Amino acid sequence: MNTSFGRDTGLQVRMLTTMLLLGLVYIVFFGVLFASAGGVIALIGCGAFLAFQFFGSDKLALRSMGAQEVSPQEAPELHAMIERLCIQADIPKPKIAVVASPVPNAFALGRSQKTATVCATTGIMDLLSPGELEAVMAHEITHIVNRDVMIMTLAGFFASIASMIVQFGFLFGGGGFGGGGYSDDDDDGPSFMAIILISAVVWVVSFFLMRMLSRYREFAADRGAAVITGRPSALSSALLKLSGVNERIPQSDLRAHAEMNAFYIVPVKVKDSLYNLFSTHPPMEKRIEALSRLESQLQSGGRITDVALAS
């Protein structure tokens, strides 16, 4: 692969593998759900939720974060920067939003390149130099180019369904799904337990597959930022600043952002949080090492390749 922006083969293979494996798990999940939880009604409900997840989850996430879309008049420098990066990456300019938050971070959402939104917090715009902020925005633009945001959104759908079933199941203590509450039918108990067990398995498998994909996609986006800007060192500097500042942010502010960790360029770390057990991102030192290898390749006049991402 040359220094022009191109598809990341490693990422494409991982996304395809993730979707195939998840597809097999979900076929079993749907089979059990269809047999045990009201059949067609359950599938219609899941289908409606899938449509909402695919078409509306990005808008809901932006609203929950308090993100406000900004015009070129409101944020001229940010718009000019992202427009320049999009020309280099050869993609349509996404919508641009800003979150008024001291937590320095950035993320991209959207089911396609035409519907994508790139978002930055006021904290990150205040913290980073123009060159560093450009590298971060190039990282987010790469997620849009690679279409991994859409894959993560779809992969998270059934995991969310499974998690909800497990949580509601234990909350209501075994009421039949098809009967609207407790039932005297002896068959309801086994059916309910089958749904709970299968849902738990689906959630666990989805969790680990998504974490594997999420970690590699961050390496791929780092590489893309290096290709677009030609300055891997700028992204390294930005990542180190973001990592250091996040450790000094009040825990109350971090908790409000933890659920978006899979999409952030640098995950926030909340004390005593389950989000810290299985990180969605590779270790920071690994990302810095990979960027250093990319910097060496550029300085020696060589080509930026996927090999430089190997951790």
The whole-angstrom Rg is: 21 Å
Strand order in the largest sheet? 1-2-4-3
Q: Structural class per helix/strand content?
A: mainly alpha
Helix segment tally = 10
Specify the biggest β-sheet. 4 strands, mixed
What proportion of the residues form beta strands (DSSP E)? 5-15%
Order of helices and strands: HHEHEEEHHHHHHH
How many domains is the backbone divided into? 1
- Give a count of the beta strands, DSSP E runs of length 2 or more: 4
State the shape: globular
- Distance between the first and last residues' Cα: 18 Å
The low-confidence runs, each spanning 5 or more residues with pLDDT under 50, are: 175-190, 272-276
Proportion of residues in helical segments: 55-70%
Give the overall pLDDT as a whole number: 77
